[in-house]
Amino acid sequence: MEYSIWTRVGAEAGETTGEILLRKEQERSAGDGLFVWGVGNSSRGISALLHAGTAIDVVFSFMRARPRPHDVSPATVIGWRAYVDDDKTRPLPAHVRVTSRGGKDRHYALICRSNEPLVLSDRGAFDPEAHRNLSGRRIGDSQVTALVQRVARDSASTLYASGFRARLVDWVKLAQPTNDR
Description:
Number of domains: 1
Order of helices and strands: EHEHEHEEEEEEEE
Strand content: 35-45%
Number of strands: 11
Radius of gyration: 16 Å
Largest sheet: 11 strands, mixed
């Protein structure tokens, strides 16, 4: 079975997509390919698949919709300093910076590895209609990040451009939020 995480990226915490991508490329370069991408929602199945040794690719596509005002100009920005792994709180690596808009009491992250630079380019298409959530349901229009499995061939009508791809190393809950601005 082919599993992937599909995440749509856009403006967040007062940064444009280009600014975030530049920062993540700097992380990747400084971290020997390792970078951490914050996401707002959890997924129950990711940890179990990783612990079973399942390879999971992360497909990053760019949002088609205009960014929401609270993503472009949030009242506050939170910086996350640590993550929870095996019920232990551990500091994020020194080269990593994960932010989110304020007002959140929890946030998650995809710890990824890529040997290729994170640059905007066409890395092939992603068809959400050819994939389903682990529950078997179609990917919701408002769902930004989803663990999915391929169930059909791509169709030409719903393709998203894949901006870049990486391999998932871990999925974690973030901890120790602080004001970032």
